[in-house]
Design brief:
Elements lengths: L2 H4 L6 E4 L9 E2 L10 E3 L12 H7 L3 E4 L10 E4 L3 H12 L8 E6 L4 H14 L4 E5 L2 E4 L2 E3 L8 H13 L4 E5 L2 H5 L8 E6 L15 H9 L5 E7 L5 H4 L6 E6 L6 E11 L2 E10 L3 E5 L4 H14 L6 H9 L8 E3 L6 E5 L4 H12 L6 E5 L8 H13 L2 E4 L9 H12 L6 E3 L3 H10 L6 E5 L6 E4 L2 E4 L2 H16 L3
Parallel strand pairs: 2-3, 3-4, 4-5, 6-10, 6-11, 7-10, 11-12, 12-13, 13-14, 18-22, 19-20, 19-22, 20-21
Antiparallel strand pairs: 1-5, 7-8, 8-9, 14-15, 15-16, 17-18, 23-24
Helix pairs in contact: 3-5, 4-9, 4-10, 11-12, 12-13, 14-15
Length: about 500
């Protein structure tokens, strides 16, 4: 493809060479440079692609897209733009021939509920026979194939590449988690989504490498409603009006509020050992009676969002009901089958907000004991650890403090910070630094009627220690422990 065509939607100036050269690929990672490619120099929190210009030329890049003035020798095309991230997105759209135009596209933003809402939408659409690809925390999912990604919302090139693959494999719809950082860093630029969904807004992702304050965090989320045709918004959320500031889309609403377009009511909890969920009814734009095998009121909100968007597709009410009844979300209050008369859950809750939501919800099911096993990530704000400790101490009957992704910190230092938070409460706790040992303790000390939450890892299948990711899937660990216990009870 000619460089001129790749840049057709961009404003730029030519510092060197010309734009009538053939480009074989668009690359933003200097480690992946191939001969004849265009290298786009991105500026990030930890690295600046402009530092790798010389290396890119040496490896065979024939065009450079930059924000800063650079000097290179030879006929390499040097293209200067105001924002290389925005330009990468637009170039990627052209390179992959605008795949979004061949799909019905849905983007979901919000502090909590993105992953679950995306899974619900996919479950409903696929129940109706509409093949749907998804992009998000769990990776890129097409059929039963999962392609792992580094971020909830990958770089724009990966998004466009994934959508082209979806089209080629027969998908008719695409649903993506649009994280605040994905929107901030222009990863979704170049796509006018058919539908944008807002789940909720709360304090999270504030820090040097994320957002400077809540105002920026909210503003980044609101960007979605300037690049979608229909915005579907949680009417009950306090940020409802702010999220729509300067929006350009048609607006539809959902919630418990009676003036919402889609209204939930008469919800009640459903629980038995190994199953935990919620029932509710809807009125307004869609009248349904729904059972969802994911617990809590927040599941009602996520299901409402899914219903609100799926009703725009050519599907039946029965498809919506079946899709929600059968939905499963890896690592989101995920029930793991166990032989005992208790319920074992895996959940991604890794901060105080998500942990409080999960534990408050589970307490409503009146378990004999609510047991929470958790740790905290290293090289992250310490406040999260204190807050998580305090939340678990206040809401759990027993907390088991263990390791999570300690990264470059000592596990015991992290546990000490968690303990400082939990000591502010009267909550009972024990410390088991090794996560496998902690899971074993949970299983072997369970009582009938307990609900046990293994919090923090969720969908993750690794443990990050000193920069190395070691394989660790809690489902496999649980299976091994149960197998060991069965063998102990029934020796040959």
């Amino acid at each position: 493809m000619k460089l001129r065509d790749l840049l057709s939607k961009c404003e730029y100036s030519v510092l060197n060479g010309n734009v009538d050269i053939e480009i074989k690929d668009v690359i933003y990672d200097s480690r992946k440079i191939t001969y004849g490619c265009a290298f786009v120099a991105l500026k990030g929190y930890n690295a600046d692609g402009h530092k790798f210009i010389t290396d890119a030329v040496y490896k065979g890049a024939t065009a450079l897209v930059v924000e800063d003035d650079v000097e290179v020798s030879g006929n390499v095309a040097v293209i200067k733009v105001n924002n290389t991230r925005e330009t990468l997105a637009k170039m990627s759209v052209e390179y992959f021939k605008s795949p979004a135009k061949e799909l019905t596209t849905v983007a979901v933003t919000g502090t909590k509920g993105k992953t679950t809402t995306v899974a619900m939408i996919r479950s409903i659409l696929e129940t109706a026979g509409i093949k749907t690809g998804t992009i998000g925390t769990l990776g890129i999912i097409i059929d039963n194939q999962i392609y792992k990604t580094n971020n909830t919302t990958p770089e724009s090139y990966e998004i466009q590449q994934a959508m082209r693959r979806m089209v080629d494999e027969g998908c008719k719809a695409m649903v993506i988690e649009a994280s605040s950082l994905g929107l901030k860093w222009h990863r979704t630029d170049g796509i006018e989504f058919d539908y944008g969904i807002f789940t909720n807004f709360s304090n999270d992702h504030i820090g040097d490498s994320e957002h400077k304050d809540l105002e920026e965090y909210l503003n980044c989320k609101s960007k979605l409603f300037k690049q979608c045709k229909v915005g579907i918004i949680n009417k009950d959320d306090a940020a409802f009006e702010e999220i729509l500031k300067d929006h350009t889309c048609t607006v539809e609403t959902y919630g418990y509020a009676k003036d919402a377009d889609l209204v939930a009511h008469t919800d009640n909890l459903l629980a038995k050992p190994g199953f935990i969920g919620v029932h509710f009814n809807t009125t307004g734009s869609e009248e349904l009676s729904v059972d969802v095998a994911i617990p809590g009121r927040f599941s009602v909100y996520n299901a409402l969002a899914a219903i609100a968007v799926c009703r725009h597709f050519d599907i039946s009410k029965d498809d919506i009901i079946k899709g929600l009844f059968n939905v499963k979300v890896k690592g989101r209050v995920e029930v793991v089958p166990v032989p005992g008369n208790y319920t074992l859950l895996i959940d991604y809750a890794h901060n105080a907000v998500s942990m409080e939501n999960v534990l408050t919800t589970l307490k409503e099911y009146k378990p004999k004991r609510l047991i929470t096993m958790f740790g905290a990530g290293g090289n992250r704000p310490k406040d999260r650890r204190y807050e998580m400790g305090e939340v678990s101490g206040r809401l759990s009957d027993l907390s088991i403090i263990t390791e999570d992704n300690s990264r470059y910190e000592d596990v015991m230092d992290i546990i000490k910070d968690i303990k400082e938070g939990i000591d502010k409460t009267k909550g009972k706790y024990i410390i088991i630094p090794n996560r496998v040992d902690a899971i074993r303790y949970c299983i072997e000390n369970s009582l009938d009627g307990d609900i046990i939450v293994l919090a923090g890892k969720g969908h993750e299948d690794y443990q990050e220690i000193r920069g190395v990711k070691y394989h660790m899937d809690e489902r496999e660990i649980i299976a091994d422990i149960l197998n060991d216990n069965e063998n102990d009870e029934n020796p040959n």
